[in-house]
Specification:
- By secondary structure, the chain is of the alpha/beta class.
- The protein has 3 domains: 180 residues, FAD/NAD(P)-binding domain; 104 residues, no CATH class; 121 residues, no CATH class.
- The protein has 18 helices and 19 strands.
- It starts with 7 loop residues before the first strand and ends in a 10-residue tail after the last helix.
Length: 495
């Protein structure tokens, strides 16, 4: 048996990062086992069924869904995109303001510019500057292979705008606008601390039909990558939470499960939660000041209350919206001690597979305090009561916008930050790892830990921004590093 086929690998976690790592490892001849705490693969790339409806818990759009983008190569390599049908909604997101204002962030930049100038004519300068930047990004198609002139050339034309908006938070970006509703949209609709460049790049991809929604949502994609992994000979174990990473002589050599069983391999990869990996599975023994600072000072995406709602209504009068509809409430309500004054609702009127004929699946989510729900979960009766009260508030809030909706609701399911933690192990129930702030985007995160050999981390805790790309990108990068270390030629197809 040659060198490349003699090494074994254990991967902790079967989310998109773990599955991607497994696929790349198998394609490069490493004998791979994945251990997953949950009963199915996907991690945060998930959905679940209730009363005939599918609650889509992840995907709104897929970065690089068009073959015109190099990102598409990631999805082809791991087997995620083949055979999938994509739709490209006309509107990215809509905001209906408290005073009757309506702001549509159209997917096509020309339509977006015209509309924003009508909403805020006094803001012609920042609107035109923003749309010019978006048009610039429509011509940018970054290479997925770092290094060399091939990866540098695409940056030349966009570098000035990339640096300008990359250093500018959404809050700073929003201050450029005088029109109150535009100032609010660009300052507060997303997380104020985030870099504004992410929005501009997303709008550019939407303009190019490169950030479409896959019909069927998350589960068919997770199943496709899992299928490719197992077809390549990979081995996956469900319902197997990892308790410890076994270390001998400063080398990761295996894992110990919560049931006490142990497994060993030449290389150990954690595609699991970053905090749990470093401070629990490794007992905090392999960290330096940078690692400590990362988890003490870097802002993460907040935890959420996430609701799936199934209604006997089709919403044919509403345009299709990739990222949903934001409405302000006439009667704000309180959940987990925090006032909720608006609802962000995804109405999946463009995916008939998520609901029975004549009906529609919807989701509503809002940030909510992890510790509140964690403490409350110790009292199951009150925990469930709080969830049901939150659901009633949301339905009443939606009925302000959609009269009679209360009578049409056939299903509602509430997930809290504790739910996210229970099913994925994510630190404090965070749904996407580190926020892509200007500072976080400028500081690459190491995929190894100081003083520990034969060990790597992949996924959203080693790349700010979260989402599916972080899983595939970091897995590919780590596999290339391992191949280089082992003097094995990196491959992206099985031989």
């Amino acid at each position: 048996m040659d060198q490349q086929n003699s090494k074994s690998m254990i991967i902790i976690g079967a989310g998109i990062a773990g599955l991607s790592m497994g696929v790349y490892a198998q394609m490069n001849g490493y004998k791979t086992k994945i251990f997953e705490m949950h009963t199915r693969s996907g991690g945060l790339m998930t959905a679940w069924k209730r009363k005939g409806f599918t609650i889509e818990g992840c995907i709104h759009w897929l970065t690089g869904s068009s073959k015109d983008y190099h990102y598409y190569q990631y999805w082809e390599e791991i087997g995620l995109i083949q055979g999938k049908e994509f739709v490209n909604p006309e509107i990215f997101t809509r905001v209906e303001g408290p005073n009757g204002e309506v702001v549509n962030l159209y997917s096509k930049v020309d339509q977006l510019e015209k509309h924003l100038l009508e909403v805020g004519p006094a803001d012609a300068k920042p609107i035109k500057e923003m749309c010019k930047a978006i048009r610039g990004f429509t011509k940018w198609n970054p290479s997925i292979d770092s290094g060399g002139i091939k990866s540098v050339i695409p940056l030349v034309s966009v570098m000035p705008v990339l640096m300008k908006y990359g250093k500018m938070s959404m809050q700073e970006f929003g201050k450029k606008f005088q029109t109150p509703i535009l100032r609010w949209v660009f300052s507060d609709l997303w997380f104020p601390e985030m870099s504004s460049v992410g929005l501009l790049m997303t709008l550019a991809m939407l303009n190019n039909n490169g950030a479409g929604y896959p019909i069927g949502g998350s589960i068919p994609m997770a199943d496709s990558v899992e299928q490719k992994f197992t077809d390549l000979g990979g081995d996956i174990h469900f319902g197997k939470p990892v308790e410890k990473i076994i270390v001998e002589d400063q080398r990761a050599v295996g894992i110990k499960l919560t049931d006490g069983s142990e497994y060993r391999a030449d290389v150990i990869i954690s595609a699991a939660d970053g905090y749990a990996t470093i401070f629990k599975m490794l007992d905090g023994k392999f960290k330096d000041e940078k690692v400590t600072e990362l988890y003490e000072k870097t802002p993460a995406f907040p935890s959420l209350v996430f609701m799936g709602i199934g209604v006997k209504r089709e919403f044919n009068d509403l345009p299709k919206m990739t990222s949903g509809l934001t409405t302000f409430l006439k009667q704000p309500f309180t959940v987990a001690g925090e006032e909720i004054n608006r609802l962000e609702t995804c109405i999946f009127n463009y995916d008939p597979t998520l609901a029975p004929a004549g009906k529609t699946a919807m989701t509503v989510m809002f940030p909510s305090d992890y510790q509140y729900w964690k403490d409350l979960s110790n009292d199951p009766e009150h925990y469930e009561a709080e969830k049901q009260e939150a659901a009633l508030h949301v339905i009443r809030g939606l009925s302000e916008r959609f009269p009679g909706l209360e009578a049409d609701v056939e299903m509602i399911d509430v997930a809290t930050p504790v739910t996210f933690e229970r099913y994925t192990g994510n630190w404090k129930g965070s749904f996407e790892g580190w926020l892509p702030t200007p500072t976080a985007m400028m500081k690459p995160i190491k995929k190894t830990l100081p003083g520990l050999e034969n060990f790597y981390m992949v996924g959203q805790w080693v790349q700010a921004g979260g989402g599916l790309p972080s899983g595939a990108m970091t897995a590919r990068e780590v596999m290339k590093t391992i191949c280089k270390t082992d003097q094995v030629k990196f491959k992206t197809v099985a031989e």
